[in-house]
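ok trying again, last paste got cut off:
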Amino acid sequence: MIDDKRIVVIIPAFNEEESLPNVIGDIPKFVDEIIVANNGSSDNTLGVAESLGVTVLTEYEKGYGAACLKAIDYVQNKNYNVVVFLDADYSDYPEEMTLILEPIIKDDVDLAIGSRILGNRAKGAMLPQAIWGNWLASFLIRLFWGYKFTDLGPFRAIKFSSLQKLEMADRNFGWTVEMQIKAAKQKMKCKEIPVSYRKRIGKSKVTGTFAGTIKASTKILYLIFSSLFSK
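nice, full thing came through this time. structure:
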């Protein structure tokens, strides 16, 4: 079934030179193209990515969403059926990609999200503030739009046609929650899949710092409440 689909993987990367070879090496061979969206890294992420034989784009504006949007713009006319988003820190298990893709390919799901909450996560892999933030955001989405999520996990797959309908715009911390809110508001078919999760290589740029946690939390809550008053 996967052979019938054209699949592209997008990996936003900021200073992930150490972990990137592991991530790329574990991606299943059926993937048609791997894109590393280098987010203005100051280490050798760019050189490492280029040495791995993948497509490399650079977005100098700092922000997870900005890097994702750069890659989406690149694939607009390449006739892909499914887009997979995967972090560059090796906290996810790329070999579990088939679990993420199966609902889309077999059950016509629009958006499949890898849930670290439902899956098997290593002790300490998710910091307490990340677990709390995921719970609160998921609770509010269910309260306002009736969609039951447990996680804002970055490991996810979406039909390219559905992704285009979402008209994604967030350029930093709100990328994942924006996608889930817009999918809920458009009544898309969504499903969570339990995935494994381990301690990342290196320190988190978001929940690993106090400032990052505050910025991300503020942005996520802003997006949720502002979405109540937008189309």
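cool. Residues 13 and 38 are 5 Å apart (CA to CA). The first helix runs from residue 20 to 26.
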